[in-house]
Amino acid sequence: MTYIPKKMQHYAHAAMNLINMDSENRVVLNVGGIRHETYKATLKKIPATRLSRLTEALANYDPILNEYFFDRHPGVFAQVLNYYRTGKLHYPTDVCGPLFEEELEFWGLDSNQVEPCCWMTYTQHRDTQETLAVLDRLDLDTEKPSEEELARKFGFEEDYYKGTISWWQEMKPRIWSLFDEPYSSNAAKTIGVVSVFFICISILSFCLKTHPDMRVPIVRNVTVRTANGTAGWFLDKTQTNAHIAFFYIECVCNAWFTFEILVRFISSPNKCEFIKSSVNIIDYIATLSFYIDLVLQRFASHLENADILEFFSIIRIMRLFKLTRHSSGLKILIQTFRASAKELTLLVFFLVLGIVIFASLVYYAERIQPNPHNDFNSIPLGLWWALVTMTTVGYGDMAPKTYIGMFVGALCALAGVLTIALPVPVIVSNFAMYYSHTQARAKLPKKRRRVLPVEQPRPPRLPGAPGGVSGCGTPGSGPHSGPMGSGGTGPRRMNNKTKDLVSPKSGPLGASIVAMSPRTMLDLNPALAMGKPNFQPRFPTPLAATPPVVSAGDTAPSVAPPVIPVPSIAVSTLGKDSGISTSTTTATTNSGNLETSKKAFL
User: Fold this and answer.
1) What's the pLDDT score for residue 225?
2) In which element (H, E) is residue 380 found?
3) Which Pfam families match (predicted)?
């Protein structure tokens, strides 16, 4: 045996103590199969978080590998751990925003602490979620709802579960789908085509009946007395009326509109929402205007200026908005203007500001020099010229004649181009965003596999047992029993036999010696068997002493802690002929035996 001087032994013990102290200050985190190692003091930098409260009593602590296991996203955890180290939280570009938020919530971190350089990229998913929520409200999805969803929508969910649905409750959703959801069935498509046909015919009739060739003159026979005393007569055209055919066309169209409104109102799932809908308001006001027009023609046609009352029939043009129920593109266009309300308001504000400024400037600019043909006699007239110029229309009815006025007109045109061009890209981008998301939703699969949120069952804890260690069980029992049977504690748990070997006073060295035993390494951690090491114990030794049996009524004898010999191990690996033989003494709770074990291990 080689003699080692006492001074060298002192240095070796000091180095061993430093290594043990440093290893005790480090912690190993296994996140999604990737191991991360850091100092415990690093995890204490951000208090009141999951990583700042790590203890060995947690269920996800593995005493054999001396690590904590978390089945979470490893890529996000790299940024989380970097946040503990540097105090700066960055957003990984290869991770979706909601997943990043869920991971931060799991680790107990605030998502608002993301650095400014990553904030714009990180918040893009929020805009996307808002867009998808808007598209859900637009009801662009053509997927047919289930019977349970229909029962919940129409308010007879309890009757559906009881099986006591009446014939009206069964027919009401079908009628509503026929008249309000054009893409729900072939019959609904047919009714939708008929509705669009009547809308187009009504608008076309409203426009054509104002054409001179489509109107019938009203001729009056007027008798006059001539100068020589004879009576004469002539025909006087007082006014023109629309052809009678347009009246019958309007009657047929409005009869259909009236029938459609009544059916949709009766079969609607919510009457209040139906009445408050903007498209429905336009529909029944336009239909009501037809009946009001009939009443006025019947009882108020003899009044003067009765034709002015026809002005209210222009509300029928608004029926074009009913086409939004049949076209998803029109819904997207209207939603684009709603989403761009701020930009449109800003555009109108700058236009009004520019119109007022340039109208005042051109008014005084045209009065500085002699100008006999001055068109700008007042500032209100200049407002019209500034509006036409800034919108780049340019009718030419008013134009500046002086050089200063021309210079003001040039500035007005340039300002109008810049003012209108600035908010237009925002509106275009909003429309492209809604349209692209609509197309993507249409291509998504309608049915997806559901992932059940089932957690792994945990074994029950015995009263008085240490945290995270369950009681003994039968070999191979439990939902996570190992290949050799570990009492149902799973491959990442430590059974009672191994717990007896690791004494609280043995320290990390004793735990390392126990971890090197063949039954502990293969039984409790089968992943180590993948390297196929060959263990050759010198003599068979039980892993734990059998406690003495105490009969009922007897007092338990005081038994000293059993002395557990730890076998030496000869490990032979592939590719290496040399064997490593390590002989140890008995591992006991005694501190003197611990020193002997350390020396033998060195």
Assistant:
1) 74
2) helix 379-390
3) BTB_2, Ion_trans
